[in-house]
Amino acid sequence: MAEGRVDWAASMVEELRKNFLKGKTRSYEWRVGQMRRLLQMIEEKESEIMQALSHDLCKPQIESFIQEISMAKESCKLVIKELKRWMKPEKAKTGLTTFPSSAEIVSEPVGVVLVISAWNYPFVLSLDPVIGAISAGNAVVLKPSEVSPATSSLFAKILPDYVDTSVVRVVEGSVGETTALLEQQWDKIHYTGNSKVARIVMAAAAKHLTPVVLELGGKSPVIVDSNVNLEVAAKRITVGKWGSNNGQACIAPDYIITPKSFAPKLVDALKSTLEEFYGKDPSESKDLSRIVNSNHFKRLTNLLDDEKVSDKIVYGGQRDEKRLYIAPTILLDAPEDSLIMKEEIFGPLMCIVTVDKVEDSFDVINSKPKPLAAYLFTKDKKLEKMFVSSVSSGGMLINDTTLHFANYTLPFGGVGESGIGSYHGKFSFDAFSHKKGVLYRTFGGEASARYPPFTPRKQRVLRALLTGDFIGLFLNLIGWSKA
Amino acid sequence: MEQHYSERSVGELRKTFESRKTRGVEWRKSQLRALQRFLMEREDDIFQALKQDLGKPRVEAYRDEVGPLTNSLNLSLKCLDKWMASKKINMPMIAMPTTAELVPEPLGLVLIFSSWNFPFVLSLDPLIGAIAAGNTVVLKPSEASPASSAFLAKTLPKYLDGEAIKVVEGGETVSKQLLDYKWDHIFFTGSQRVGRIIMSAASKHLTPVTLELGGKCPAVFDFMSSFRDREVSVRRMVNAKYGLSGGQACIAVDYLLIEEKHASQMIDLVKSKIKSYYGDKPSETDSISRIVNRHHFDRLKRLLNDPAVQASIIHGGSLDEDRLYIEPTLILNPPLDSEVMNEEIFGPLLPIITLKKIEESINFINSRPKPLAIYVFTKDEILKKRMVDETSSGSVTFNDASIHFLLDTLPFGGVGESGFGSYHGKFSFDRFSHMKPVLKRNLLIELSFGYPPWNSNKLKFLRSAFHFDYFRLLLLLLGFTTDKDNKDQVQKLKST
């Protein structure tokens, strides 16, 4: 059975490669045409998409709209608007060494690419890399996550009606199918998910020397200084955490660091914001996504049931296994060696770590692997500067959370444990392109010094030529030498 | 006995990085200046080491190693402030009031594996990039060029900050030990086989890698009517074959594609050029490098010893085992399934393949793994355009060969089997940096539309915001709704 799958995967990739080599994906017209079709698909199928997301995650419509549908649409529109400019070869300067010549950097498609996406934003995390791959002129196979089955099968059903199926495919399935896909030779693999599977993806890619983009997660911290407008800060943290798929987002705040004296006020502000957003009994709210499945539900309740944190819960903690519901929960001062402070939470639990001085926060963050995002709320410009220079993370946002994801003018991606490579907008186009240096020479400008037989004089000429020493060059050419 | 690379040294380099010393622009510049001094003061020692490892002629040693490094250092020192400055990014209206910038930051501790064929430029050019970007570095030169490796290990510490930059000597055992540690980037120059091992080891720690590999770089020879153009082309091509470390270069010409009907004329020209470069007795010239070691000599000998290949030799072919010398050799139309046409040659053998039409070269190239470089000698603008559009390779150079390596305004690197990730000039700085986006907002303007509990008005607001429909946005803010909104809403409710 497994072997049959491999054969099937191999023949699919072979077919896509053959079609890619025919060259049609390279043209501007084809790429923009596909973008228009994708845009049309999103517009015509909006309600089906919302329904699938609701089925997979009980995602509130407005979250689906802002964080998935609009994002994907904006991404298509940006490509349609900018692609001509992106595709244009970039002129490069040439110097004396290669005079006379001209040079340019040409963006060419890498070939046949694989996109493996995640279940938490199953629509945009699938479509956005596909948009990038197509905009760069590649053939692409999308493997949506089996953990969000409704969205996965929606893709399999609708995508073929809109895009060119000779070079764009959707493969549904789980570990077996993914393994079969990973055995094939790809020209790029774009993976969104966790760092455990990422290691498997990268090791598989190594066999074929395939470059990878790994979009992972990590524990994204929020530092809250005591001088902030607490109401605004609490709102922005709350919507970034619980309003982002109920914390099941790679850029959702994972834990908060704040000065000890300020912590009680912050806890109160978060509590009242949560009540304002989700009511006295959040289990009744329609505005919270639920936990994706029982595996993740168990993982999260395990974090809560850790003995080390049993007396640390200051808000929430209620759960309902049948409805896969866990209440928005706040833990104060969970010890550093507790499970919840070591693993990425990826759910509606929020830890608050207290420090003596706000500057001590940097050490807390730097003692852990580099996160995908780091957030700071402050009015202090000096602290802001220190934060930027002393914390390393995929991206940084000051006085808000998660918003940087929505900005297509910024590269989105991790560093260290939070991933390799970046995408979004032009950066997606670049991620799926090879930047080919092209040098045009003429037959003039021959420097015989380049060629054997070699003499000491040739060496002097070369020295002048390579280092742009015009006077030395001139002296040598007329037979003098400075040396 | 190979020296053991201790955990303590890696720990020391990490600590140095954490001390933030390598981040300062002054530290970076001081190290780059120290490298300048190293090149200036030790040039003769460098030439000596290269002579010992590869019999590399002094002019080649300067042209391909010391010269490009001098340039690279000058450029880095000149541009470092500019490269390090954060870059403002324009934000769309919807995100107002917001500012954004890209801040380049060092990755941390990086490992550089270099190669034996250009043991100085391939060690120090990545090192320049890593230092410019503010990283701490371990450099592991190739054990196949032992004189250069030993010289670097002994001499570099006299110039560079030993707490931040270390040179480690050794072979496979040491490399394996190094690969067990967690690095923030691994930069490797070498073969595909080892490239796979490197990447697979890197995957354990999710370490990003740059793989600078090779491949069979073709030179395509279109027929040119002017004798001078033909002569210049051949001059450049022959030099890019035998004149780059004796063909032991990842960007050396590997094989030649030529139209059948012009073949004999061009071959005569190639032969006469070899003669003018290396004389009647090329074994006596000191203008060509020798083969690096016995292992590679035997490998090249094996390529030549294939009977079908033997029968195709039209020039050269003599070997001197004691001196590891192989004569510049031309092989006309060896079988396409022979080893010499399937392995990267990396030596002074040049297969010449004849085609009916020069345009067939496109298919010929596309049916093989993507090479690091393609060289095309032609005046035909249509062929030029087709080559750029229809083939894929690390780079393309028209009417010359190998010289693109010297241009720091072009990214240097492969694609497909020839590797990934590029460097040189600013691209080196970028390679060893993380471009961190930093977005800043203030805490003043706040609209309730961005927050739960969600209702249909908020959805409408956001729909307008995302469509950059500022007029409707204003209406909604003022409490108006339009017919279109209501229709939309009804439709949405019906469908869900």
Structure notes:
The complex is a heterodimer of chains A (483) and B (496). By secondary structure, chain A is an alpha/beta fold. Chain A folds into 3 domains: 2-82 and 106-216 and 424-434, Aldehyde Dehydrogenase, Chain A, domain 1 (3-Layer(aba) Sandwich), CATH 3.40.605.10; 221-413, Aldehyde Dehydrogenase, Chain A, domain 2 (3-Layer(aba) Sandwich); 449-483, no CATH class. Chain A contains 17 helices and 20 strands. In chain A, the strands form 5 sheets. Chain A has a 7-stranded mixed β-sheet with strand order 10-13-14-9-8-15-16, with helices on both faces. A 6-stranded mixed β-sheet of chain A has the order 5-4-3-6-7-18, with helices on both faces. In chain A, helix 1 (2-21) packs across helix 7 (175-182) and helix 3 packs across helix 4 (61-87). Chain A is globular and about 90 Å long. The relative contact order of chain A is 0.12. The mean pLDDT of chain A is 92. Chain B folds into 3 domains: 7-213 and 424-437, Aldehyde Dehydrogenase, Chain A, domain 1 (3-Layer(aba) Sandwich), CATH 3.40.605.10; 218-413, Aldehyde Dehydrogenase, Chain A, domain 2 (3-Layer(aba) Sandwich); 450-495, no CATH class. In chain B, strand 1 (87-89) and strand 2 form a beta hairpin. Chain B is globular. Residues 481-487 and 492-496 of chain B have low confidence and may be disordered. At the A-B interface, helix 3, helix 4, strand 2, helix 8 and helix 9 of A face helix 3, strand 2, helix 7, helix 8 and helix 13 of B. Chain A: GO terms for molecular function: aldehyde dehydrogenase (NAD+) activity. Chain A: It comes from Acorus gramineus. Chain A: Belongs to the aldehyde dehydrogenase family. Chain A: Residues 11-436 form the Aldehyde dehydrogenase domain.
Mean pLDDT across residues of chain B: 90
Total domain count of chain A: 3
Largest interface: A-B, 112 and 107 residues
Highest-level CATH class of the largest domain in chain B: Alpha Beta
So, CATH architecture of the largest domain in chain B?
3-Layer(aba) Sandwich
Instruction: Give the assembly state of these chains.
Output: heterodimer
Distance between the termini of chain B: 73 Å
Mean pLDDT across all amino acids of chain A: 92
Q: Over the alpha carbons, how many angstroms does the gyration radius of chain A reach?
A: 27 Å
Identify low-pLDDT runs of chain A.
none
Strand pairing plus helix content of chain A: what structural class?
Answer: alpha/beta
The first-to-last residue Cα distance of chain A is 75 Å
Q: Count up the helices of chain A.
A: 17
Question: CATH topology of the largest domain in chain A, which one?
Answer: Aldehyde Dehydrogenase, Chain A, domain 1
Find the structural class of chain B using helix and strand composition. Answer: alpha/beta
Instruction: Return the CATH class of the largest domain in chain A.
Output: Alpha Beta
Q: And the CATH topology of the largest domain in chain B?
A: Aldehyde Dehydrogenase, Chain A, domain 1
CATH architecture of the largest domain in chain A: 3-Layer(aba) Sandwich
Physical arrangement of strands within the biggest beta sheet of chain A: 10-13-14-9-8-15-16
Query: Helical proportion of chain A?
Result: 40-55%
Catalytic activity (chain A): an aldehyde + NAD(+) + H2O = a carboxylate + NADH + 2 H(+)
Active site (chain A): 215, 250
Protein name (chain A): Aldehyde dehydrogenase
InterPro entries (chain A): Ald_DH/histidinol_DH, Ald_DH_C, Ald_DH_CS_GLU, Ald_DH_N, Aldehyde_DH_dom, Aldehyde_DH_NAD(P)
